[in-house]
Amino acid sequence: MGMVQRHLDVEDIDPDPIIQFGRWFADAEAAGEPQPESMALATSTPAGVPSVRFVLLKGVDERGFAFYTNYHSRKGGELNANPVASLAFRWWSLERQVRVSGRVLVVAAEESDSYFSTRPRGAQLGAWASAQSEVLGGREQLEADLNDTTARFDGREVPRPAWWGGYRIEPAEIEFWQGRPDRLHDRLRYEREGSSWRIERLSP
């Protein structure tokens, strides 16, 4: 990998933040960052009570940032009731962060089906066996549910459960953060304006 630019100026970035994100993501992969697709996902209840966890980015394009989960999980319940969210990526070796916020849409069933079909069989069975975020009596209960599920689908394809699929964050704001000496970091924020983006520099 060549030298990665350690400063961030408006004249150096793409006017489209999705293209700019792709460049930084490629840099993170080339730098050997472990799981560069790992991202913190922050959701909240309609009353404003927040929760955050790490999930994996499973697709990014002009429509936004997609990930997959159980719709009945805590995050699923919060997204269904209050469909706005924020993401944060952190690539340590490059001293970079990206923050994303916007409204959340459910991924089309056909797209969720397509992604589910690419998952390892064990993960497919796990999606059926786990009532994500529900209280468990013990690990043995989960293992028993998995054994039942494995027997149920023995010898045939595992279909996507109706309660499992994707969400997509449609960004209204994306901020790129580049670490600089003396905590005088570079921060450039894209804000959506109709079909285009306004770019502003923020104080560190």
Provide the descriptors you would attach to this structure in a database record.
27% helix, nine-stranded antiparallel β-sheet, Pnp Oxidase, Chain A, 5 helices, 204 residues, single chain, 9 strands, alpha+beta
Explain what the structure shows.
The protein is an alpha+beta fold and 204 residues long. The chain contains five helices and nine strands, in the order αββββαββαααβββ. It has a domain at 10-111 and 164-202: Pnp Oxidase, Chain A (Roll), CATH 2.30.110. Strands 1, 2, 3, 4, 5, 6, 7, 8 and 9 form a nine-stranded antiparallel beta sheet that branches. A hairpin with a 2-residue loop joins β3 (59-61) and β4. The radius of gyration is 19 Å and the shape is elongated.
Quick summary:
By secondary structure, the protein is an alpha+beta fold. The protein has helices at 17-30, 74-81, 109-118, 121-129, 139-152, and strands at residues 38-44, 50-56, 59-61, 64-70, 84-91, 96-106, 164-178, 186-193, 196-202. It is elongated and about 60 Å long.
Task: Write down the secondary-structure element order.
Answer: HEEEEHEEHHHEEE
Q: Quick one: overall form?
A: elongated
CATH topology category name of the domain at 10-111 and 164-202: Pnp Oxidase, Chain A
Mean pLDDT, all residues: 95
CATH architecture of the domain at 10-111 and 164-202: Roll
Q: Which stretches are poorly predicted, pLDDT < 50 over at least 5 residues?
A: none
Q: CATH-wise, what's the superfamily of the domain at 10-111 and 164-202?
A: Electron Transport, Fmn-binding Protein, Chain A
- Number of extended strands: 9
Helix content: 25-40%
**Roughly what fraction of the amino acids lie in strands?**
35-45%
User: How would a crystallographer describe the biggest sheet?
Assistant: 9 strands, antiparallel
> What's the gyration radius in Å?
19 Å
Structural class: alpha+beta
* Helical stretch tally: 5
Distance between the termini: 28 Å
- For the record, the CATH class of the domain at 10-111 and 164-202 is Mainly Beta
